[in-house]
Automatic annotation (TrEMBL):
PANTHER family documented for this protein: CATALASE, CATALASE-B
UniProt name for this protein: catalase
Signal peptide (from-to): none
Keywords tagged on the record: Heme, Hydrogen peroxide, Iron, Metal-binding, Oxidoreductase, Peroxidase
EC number of this enzyme: 1.11.1.6
Keyword Transmembrane attributed: no
UniProt xrefs under CDD domains: GATase1_catalase
Domain Catalase core: 132-520
Region (Disordered): 1-96
């Protein structure tokens, strides 16, 4: 779909025009300025809010869930059911998306990813243009750096020089660990006849159908700058840009491989590559480590025959065969599959060099194959191959004397002849070697509906390796957005972010299932052309078939949620209801709030009611369950699930206790409490209005100030609540807040010096609502001049330490809080 390049000067596309008509009062601004105040701002937001509510309400529960369990749904995945928003602002990132500028363009085109448009979107031509920096600033002088005087040092300020040099410094990327040296070209694959009996793969859908391809040939061992005519296997990698996504057939010019299992690939490559101590020899297998390894790996014998044959010194890329090597599967629309081997046969025939030639060419023209490919295409002699398939079934495969999962074996053409199905033509050289040939990322995991894997253990390892290697080579998980790697099929998913992300996704939703984006992008299901793996059986494990699905009993979603709820103590239940209430009060779309409560109604009616009540609506009907009748847990409740079931060893080690003090406080009782806490293993600290010495006693000091150490950082508080301290402390709002928060958070409080003072200043209730004593509140009797022993009130301090060990005293908790 063409995109409007400049919304101010170019004509809108029809889609954009429809959108503009529907869009809420489009605000024209040439500079991206927001609309003036009073320009219907409130209306836009209100309208968006209502549209979101409407969209969310259209999906009161996940209607696909019940159909996710068991074998049949696993083989026939359902399609999602997208809901179209009544107003497009419902799925917008911002109601300001109607603001346009030369930079912003207009809005996203509905359901469209321009990243999948042709390479024209990134092709650059600089004819008639002045030189600029990467920021588009014209460069006046491209010959000289900025200096302090003609003969002076270059200035750090020279951003033009620095940008140019910095970019240059980072021009190289890691070369491919194997197949580093390669050449590529664009072209097409043309299908002879529809193959729908065999496969639904898009390139084989119709006679004469052309699928664009990018093909890269390579040597394996040599580095990026090595010579072309080394004795080596040649890579033959084809990227089909199909209507259903990219299919990469990453093959070689030899139909077998050295090893049978991916586990041995790093060993093979380490043995083959230049030896690690002196980095020799370049692009050659003629050295000790390679032959040491292969001579201990008898399964490489077959491949060695091919590699020592003239196949390993081809005359031209245009004159060599290509092979998929592994046995693959073709799958038709009915889900029936056949085993398949892929063969590319060159129109120009298979021709090779002789060794002496290969050696001399490597000196005379190290780019021999690269040049040959380039020049043939430039001259209009387009290289061409015919694709032939060997098709066979499991029964035939069983009767071969070799295993078709063994990549060191061919299926002789005499046993299964080639079925010619189409031709590959390379008719255009890349515009830029780096952007295309170097950055192309082939990957055996890139298959499309109609193609599937077999259990060939070499293939299985490759499925992982090729994506993985691009993370380092191309610098992150977004290499699929590099233009040469982008499919022509539209890409829509919820993957986001990562280095060098190009796509700017519209809206707030990047997950599925969702209702806030109308359920989009939705799962395609089988009927919608989604990829479904062939359910090949795993007889050896007795686990059944390879499929994406869930066992039936996974459909019970609620029995243990209910068990958990029932096993909680009263305060824990209160906290759960409070947590739901808080979270949902932050949710802006009422339909989402109600949907959550309808989910909770399946867990516990009381919980649902408590949450709904706090949010101001009636409990909705419970959501339909995926499994009826509801499963009852084996237990009514499991006490082990309550946090209270594990009170710990009863100690107070490391608990932080604030001793709230002020100058003039009764230091003797404070010191006694401090000593007792320390001895019990707690961490007492003096907290007061300001840091510094406490009275005349130099051994005691305020260690932390109110502003530095508020209540929430402490597990408990000891108050200097004697007559001398309580009054001045009550003058500090922070001290009052401190006491209130300790109380409200149900932490133990010890008041030294009596119940009045600070406790009275915050109206702290000494009793629980029902009239019992507060088990977390400890008050020492007022100090008595006549009986100094009373000062420490050792029993109360001991009781406080026991209270500290209990951590919280939820008996005190009320809704609303009393303080
Ligand atoms: Fe590759 N191979 N390979 N390979 N291979 C790579 O992918 C790997 C194997 C082949 O032009 C790497 O992007 C493992 C067989 C070609 O860009 C890497 C195993 C066959 C190309 C990788 C194999 C191939 C590669 C290096 C054993 C023939 C070049 C950089 C389990 C059927 C593609 C990259 C291009 C490239 C891994 C075996 C062909 C590291 C782990 C067998 C044509 O991912």
């Amino acid at each position: 779909m063409p995109r409007s390049k400049n919304p101010e000067t170019s004509k809108s596309t029809s889609t954009a025009a429809t959108k503009a008509a529907k869009a809420p009062k489009a605000t024209k601004a040439t500079n991206g300025a927001p609309p003036a105040k009073g320009d219907g701002d409130g209306d836009l937001l209100q309208r968006q809010h209502e549209a979101m509510q409407q969209l969310a309400a259209a999906r009161p529960f996940n209607e696909l869930k019940a159909g996710e369990h068991g074998r049949d749904p696993a083989l026939q995945p359902q399609a999602g059911t997208p809901v179209e928003p009544a107003d497009e602002s419902a799925t917008a990132s911002s109601v300001r998306e109607t603001v346009v500028s030369i930079k912003l363009g207009s809005q996203a085109q509905p359901g469209h990813n321009p990243g999948n448009e042709s390479l024209d979107r990134v092709r650059v031509d600089s004819g008639g243009q002045a030189l600029t920096t990467n920021q588009g600033v014209r460069v006046a002088d491209n010959q000289n750096s900025l200096k302090a005087g003609l003969r002076g040092p270059t200035l750090l300020e020279d951003f033009i020089l620095r940008e140019k040099i910095t970019h240059f410094d980072h021009e190289r990327i890691p070369e491919r660990v194997v197949h580093a040296r390669g050449s590529a070209a664009h072209g097409y694959f043309e299908c002879y006849d529809p193959l729908d009996q065999l496969t639904m793969a898009a390139p084989f859908a119709a006679a004469g159908k052309r699928t664009p391809v990018f093909v890269r040939f390579s040597t394996v061992a040599g580095e990026r700058g090595s010579f072309d005519t080394a004795r080596d296997v040649r890579g033959f990698a084809v990227k089909f840009y199909t209507d259903d996504g990219n299919w990469d057939l990453v093959g070689n010019n030899i139909p077998v491989f050295f090893i049978q299992d991916a586990m041995k690939f790093p060993d093979l490559v380490h043995a083959l590559k230049p030896e690690p101590h002196h980095a020799m020899p370049q692009a050659a297998s003629a050295h000790d480590t390679f032959w040491d390894f292969v001579s201990l790996m008898p399964e490489s014998a077959h491949m060695l025959m091919w590699v020592m044959s003239d196949r390993a010194i081809p005359r031209s890329y245009r004159m060599m065969q290509g092979f998929g090597v592994h046995t693959f599967r073709l799958v038709n629309a009915a889900g029936e599959s056949k085993l398949c081997k892929f063969h590319w046969s060159p129109r120009a025939g298979t021709h090779s060099l002789v060794w002496d030639e290969a050696v001399k060419i490597s000196g005379a023209d190290p780019d021999f194959h690269r040049r040959d490919l380039w020049e043939a295409i430039e001259a209009g002699s387009f290289p061409e191959w015919e694709l032939g398939l060997q098709i066979f079934d499991e029964e035939q495969a069983e009767n071969f004397r070799f295993d078709v999962l063994d990549p060191t074996k061919i299926v002789p053409e005499e046993l299964v002849p080639l079925l010619p199905v189409g031709r590959l033509v390379l008719n255009r050289n890349p515009d830029n070697f780096f952007a295309e040939t170097e950055q192309v990322a082939f990957c055996t995991a890139h298959i499309v509906p109609g193609i599937d894997f077999t259990n060939d253990p070499l293939l299985q390892g490759r499925i992982h390796s090729y994506v993985d290697t691009q993370l380092t080579r191309l610098g992150g998980p977004n290499f699929h957005e590099i233009p040469i790697n982008a499919s022509i099929a539209q890409v829509h998913n919820n993957q986001r972010d990562g280095l060098h992300r190009q796509a700017i996704h519209r809206g707030s939703v990047s997950y599925e299932p969702n209702s806030l984006a109308g359920g989009c992008p939705f799962q395609a299901g089988r009927a919608g052309g989604g990829f479904v793996s062939i359910p090949t059986p795993f007889p050896a494990t007795g686990e059944g078939d390879k499929l994406r699905g869930k066992p039936e009993r996974f459909a019970d979603h609620f029995s243990q949620a209910t068990l958990f709820w029932r096993s909680q103590s009263e305060p824990e239940q209160r906290h759960i209801a409070g947590a739901f209430r808080f979270e949902l009060s932050k949710v802006q779309v009422p339909a989402v709030r109600e949907r959550v409560v309808s989910l909770l109604a399946n867990v516990d009616a009381g919980l649902a009611a408590a949450v709904a009540e706090g949010l101001g609506f009636a409990v909705p009907a419970p959501q339909p369950r995926a499994l009826e009748p509801a499963v009852e847990s084996e237990l009514d409740s499991s006490p082990a699930l309550s946090l209270l079931a594990r009170p710990g060893d009863g100690g107070v080690q490391t608990r932080r206790v604030a001793l709230l003090v002020v100058d003039g406080a009764d230091l003797a009782s404070l010191r006694a409490a401090q000593t007792a806490l320390r001895e019990a293993g707690a961490t007492p600290r003096f907290v007061g209005p300001r840091i510094g010495p406490l009275g005349a006693d130099e051994s005691m000091a305020i260690e932390m100030s109110f502003e530095q150490a508020p209540s929430v950082l402490w597990d408990a508080v000891v108050l200097a609540n004697d007559a001398a301290a309580a009054r001045p402390l009550s003058m500090y709002g922070q001290a009052l807040d401190f006491v209130k928060d300790q109380y409200r958070h149900c932490k133990p409080i010890l008041a030294l010096g009596g119940p009045g003072g600070l406790l009275a200043a915050v109206n702290l209730p000494l009793m629980l609502p029902e009239g019992e004593a507060d088990p977390g509140l400890f008050v020492c009797a007022p100090p008595s001049e006549t009986d100094p022993a009373l000062r420490t009130d050792a029993d109360t301090v001991t009781a406080f330490i026991a209270g500290l060990a209990r951590h919280r005293h939820f008996e005190r908790e009320t809704d609303p809080p009393r303080v």
